[in-house]
# Entry
Amino acid sequence: MARKGRDITERTMDPAAQAILARAEQLGIMTAFTRAEMMPPCTIGSGKSGMCCKNCFMGPCRITKDGQVGICGATVETIAARNLARAIASGAAAHSDHGRDLAFTLEAVALGQAPGYAVRDVAKLWEVARRVGVPTEGRTVNDVALDVARKALAEFGQQRGELSYLRTAPKRRYELWKKLDLAPRGIDREVVDTLHRTHMGDDQDPEHILRGAMRTALADGWGGSMWATDLSDILFGTPSPKVSQVNLGVLKRDEVNILVHGHEPTLSEMIVAAVQDPELLAYARSKGANGITLAGICCTSNEVLMRQGVPSAGNFLHQELAILTGAVEAMVVDVQCIMQALPNLAERFHTKVITTSSKVKIPGALHMEFDEHRALQVARDIVRLAIDNFPNRGEVLIPDVKADVVPGFSHEYLNYMLGGTYRGSFRPLNDAIMAGRIRGVAAVVGCNNPKVTQDKEHYDITTELLRNDVLVVQTGCGAIAAGKYGMLLGEAALELAGPGLREVCEAVGIPPVLHMGSCVDNSRILTVLTQMVTEGGLGEDISDLPAVGIAPEWMSEKALAIGTYAAASGAYVLFGVESPYEFSEEVSRLISAGWESMVGGKLEFVSDPQEIVRRALEHIDKKRAALKLPAYDPTKFGQSGDYPLQYYFELPLEEQQALVYGVPAREGNR
Ligand code: NFS
Ligand code: SF4
# Structure
């Protein structure tokens, strides 16, 4: 899809990236952008004009004609369903294994075996204990932490029964999962179940394969990912808004620059501590640097951005560009979304690429294995190595491009923010949606993909939704994209918002685009949607809400796992770029209309961003109508002065509501 010889402005809309891509061209260095243009298109693998199966070695079998089957007789529908299911299982495995490692860390903390770590958010520990049925009364923090960690670990290996978070979903949803046999029994079990079923000669009914894949995806969303989020909050603190900055301009010419890239917060949190160590700072000065700058890439970046305010050097397609600045002393990676191109590229500069996970080694990278029992020591060793590398710098080009951001809107914080100090509540949000000031809610999430112009799909879709009074929440690389263009900052983004949305955001003091974390934190969005249902007035289930999920520039298998668990939770999910399953009409139908009639949510692939927005708004309006809410009417709100913001929370509830709605509160909605 990426056309050969695209202009730099077609590769990325980010001026920082454009400057670095120009440098790459001067130096004759390839990047993912140019490699994407050189890669000959595989029409079969891309799903446009065929389907390929390599699940056994009689094949690979390439099906390009109607009625053609594989050597074993597999149809294009079965092959497409199996391919999708396998991608979902891989994505679910990645997210969930990340959750498992955090459970091991919490266990080690509770046993006093992880120096440097602690339970930083006791309130969250208590809340999670309550949710998963661990007693707290009269117990010490470490005792409860140990039980919570072991409860999590047990859910990975659980063979029967169901995951404990499922019961925290809206009652309707939980009952539907039980009825349809979609309730995951154990996290690992569901991943294995899908891998088994899709082995040669197993499940060959596309509908049945995809139903199994849905259960596996739910084991991610309401299992592995939700655990990852909650355990991270317990260990490192529940995010709340911080001021920070995003883009390559956060790197400093006169300081040692260290980048953390990947997904897990465990080591990066220790590096945050190490770079503040006076001894290491003095060591950096002894090497001629004025200090140490730590910044992130990808989801590790989101983790430390929203908790520690550590700036972000960029999203997925920035990983090579950061090294191309020549200003990075060390890029420290853990797991997921790390390009193998990094060590080769780093050889052209002075950057050290350091792998740290026992699961990830890359030829040409330096391996400094990390484990939670000696984390601070490993972190210090890494920082020291980076400092030692500072004098080796060659020519440096740091684009002077960065934007201020306010990340860190956890659902706990939103609850507090929306409800005011005394009554944490989603009431004002629900009320504003019911009145039509806010038309609906959209999660715009996911990766970068060099098949499309970097960030442009994210940007175009988000701005169009804002203009239509849709409140946007973001995670992952999509959130970093939003940050680059000022959308994660109250004032700037308010300019983009429609009049109704704008007033609500001003009243409660939130930006119209909310950064909710990394990709595993899409589980926070499930919790927000559940709270909106529980709050009342917007139906009985997630599938009743005027809400959509969009992954405009997705590329990873994890994105498919997320899209599928969101659909299985009742959401309408739209994926951009292209459909790898397009050639199978049956599978395309099963995951859209088929799933919609079964679980109320669906997954669609739509290449045109304008069409994505059109379908999203159409869906939101359809849900509004089904809830018998007033039709969205942008002319009704925003007459200046019709909303005395600063006094809002001082007014009696009755008057607050009259003000927010513009219409009298409906009976029974409170
Ligand atoms: Ni999500 Fe985060 Fe980014 Fe995509 Fe990769 S970093 S887990 S997969 S590329 S959003
Ligand atoms: Fe071909 Fe069937 Fe083997 Fe797939 S499983 S590669 S369709 S023979």
Notes: Residues 244-403 form a domain with the Rossmann fold fold (CATH 3.40.50.2030). The two ends are 50 Å apart (CA to CA). The mean pLDDT is 92. The chain has four domains: 8-62, 77-236, 244-403, 405-639.
